Amino acid sequence: MGISVGTRLGPYEILAALGAGGMGEVYRARDTRLGREVAVKVLPESFASDTERLRRFEQEARAVGALNHPNILSVHDIGTQNETHYIVTELLEGVTLRERLSGGVLPSRRATEYAMQVAQGLAAAHDKAIVHRDLKPDNLFVTKDGRVKILDFGLAKQTVLQGADEGVTRASSACTSAGMVLGTVGYMSPEQVRGERVDHLTDIFALGAVFYEMLTGKRAFQRSTAVETMTAILKEDPPEMTSTGERQISPALQRIVHRCLEKDAGQRFQSAKDLGFALDSISAGTTQTQATVALPTARNRWRIAALVFAVMFVAAAAFVVRALLLRPQQPDYRQLTFRQGYLTAARFAPDGQAIIYAASWDHPEIKLYSLRMDGTDARVLDLPPSELLAVSRSGELAVIRRTATLSSAGRLARVPLSGGAPRELLDHVISADWSADGAQLAVARVENGKCHLEYPIGKPLYETISWISHMRFSPQADAIAFMDHPLAGDDRGSVVVVDLQGNKRTLTREWEGEQGLAWSPDGSEVWFTATNGRDNDRALYGVSRSGKQRLILRTPGALYLEDIAFDGRVLLTRNERRYEVAVSQLGGETRKLSWLEVMLAASVSRDGQYAVIGDWGSGGTDYRVYLAKLDGSPAVLLGSGVAGGISADDKWVTSILPSDTTKVLLLPTGIGESKTISAPNFHYRDATWASDGRRLVVRASESDRPLRSWVQDTAGGSPRAVTPEGINGLFLTANHSDYVSARDMTGTVRLYPIDGGEPKTVIGISESDRVIGGSPAADILYLTPDTAAVPLKIVKLNIATGLRQPFVNVLPTDPAGIMGLYPPIFTADEKRYIYTQARALSVLYVATGLK
Fold first, then answer.
1. Which of the four pLDDT bands, split at 50, 70 and 90, describes residue 794?
2. What's the pLDDT tens digit per position in 649-679?
3. Can you give the pLDDT at residue 598?
4. How far apart are CA 551 and CA 536, in angstroms?
5. Which residue of the set 31, 134, 491, 738 is catalytic?
6. E-assigned strand segments in 282-386
7. Domains parsed from the chain with CATH numbers
8. Range in 52-66, 222-236, 718-732 the model is least confident about
9. 755 given a catalytic annotation
10. How many angstroms separate the CA atoms of 227 and 246, rounded?
């Protein structure tokens, strides 16, 4: 049944019908929150009435929504209204590949380009363990600007069509059982036809069939009935591509198609990424032509023979010379720093012959340094301790004094490289860069629970409820590239470009860790360093403005891109980085609890026996959660997610999956199954346990609204807001009462009772103070006046009187390479505390010859 124009499905207003099919009706709609047009697909009643099928669909839609790749249809939202289930995607303008092929066979160059784009999209999906299983021209869309989008990930595996030659067989779960057949006849792989388990190699077979059709205009395995077509897939090869009578296809393209269509999956390309590389290596316009020449007379044959030998000799000589000239040159690296410590950022000076960098050498304070490329005039700049963000063409620095960790904001200042006092500009800034003429700054700053990208300052171009980093102006001054991170304190993210009108384009998928970004000298690519999560080594990549990505450099260890000069020289830092958890006896010994590379302390049990520790380095996409005894005995792996709080009875630990923030996981510390807590339209940032062991205190956003703190009963019921919208803070217990500590819109620290009632105003706290916890048995808050300092000084504050008292100084177990200390978490008896120390040992290099 159709939906009339003007109807609202959630925040989406229906504008017009676009079409209908086996998977439901599609409408053009307007997102009333963001003011953009989208496509809304309403699922058919037969689909929505199947609870298990709907559950699988929603699970897959969320996974596909996280892919964020230019060759995959972007999923914005899923929802339900009055038993109407719908999915919201980006609105595309163009035609399906099936419609495009109805106009005739594609040129080889165009077909190869389309196949390469599909391979890149499949590679991104396969990296997330998502398999399409129903790839065909109908599920590929060609936009007006020539980009190919893969449609219906997750929908394809749920489709059921009967009675047609290209019928799609029985639906299956996300992990297809043996004996169940799924796919579209004509594009199915042999393993699909046999009903065997399928994986990413099935998609490669289907892409081969589609590529064959694009090149020849005919289907590879089409027969008069579905059964005969399936038999051909199992036993026959497709007709030779050169025998179509329409044109000749290059042998290289034929070999690629035939390798995709191998009956034995082990003989195909083993990844879509490899297939994409093979396509990329072929000159797209190499269709073979034949030249006609006049037959030589006998009198001229000797001249022709001599000419042929001369041409062959010249060609051979040219080949040798070209091979020598084009032999791949290895990049050249020159080490620039030799001291022990941590380097936070480096930039070329305007003349390109000096480098400005920020580092903490042999001491915990970050200072600014200048270094000539020839090794002379290495000196510390006479400036307050601060981090470097950017250097303008006119020789002015943009610096920041942060108050805490990676994604935290600080105070932005500008200072001439030639000397002078910093001029403070703006608070709550995360990242900044100078405009191409060096006259103005673009900034990313936090306000009202959101991160705003502004250029010039005060004019928003983009905003997000998460955070952005590594902003860089393009050489043409027409766009700003940056890294968009979905989780606070987490460097996973995507490379994004926004133009000066605020039009945003996401160029890459979400990487497990991204740090370091710069434009290529000609502005055609954005270079960045990232890791895919299978290891912790960051590699250097380039991505074009259209989203075409390539690997530039991979080395052992973690690379961080710092800057690229106008002549192509590249500044790279190689870091050995660790995040270590330590436990300290108040006034006594300190020892490390860490056994992995990136570990963060999350919480301590009320009896002071256990610590909840998160593994952010080796746990893959969704990380891992451990329960460790503070006596140093072996830890227990509880499950996946970002680690949270532990219940009062020590039986449950909270966690949240970065891949699915719509629920909170309750992980049992002993025997039992995990549970989930959720609420409609909620996205959770973190969760911990209230003192009663029955309720959760969470930071979450409802739909796309700003973050706030909520309390939610694990026995059921809707969450109840604790703080006003846009205000969220730290859960703590003080004097046997539970609060959320947060600064209100005026910057005043208030304690919001989770049971309701008026918030308490806390006196005696300065603007730079940070509340890090409370004393469960006393009217005391724990503060740190300067979270960027080492040692980290902790102060006790009496809530009633505002009096301050020094408590403890937190020291690193070893000062070498310390980037910072995370605030400690105290046991209820105040006898012990755990904390995380971030450590890195950096070496700065300049590289030439990277292309």
1. very high
2. 999 999 999 888 999 999 999 988 999 999 9
3. 85
4. 16
5. 134
6. 332-335, 341-348, 354-361, 367-372, 379-380
7. 1-91 (3.30.200.20), 94-285 (1.10.510.10), 333-564 (2.120.10.30), 636-823 (2.120.10.30)
8. 52-66
9. no
10. 29
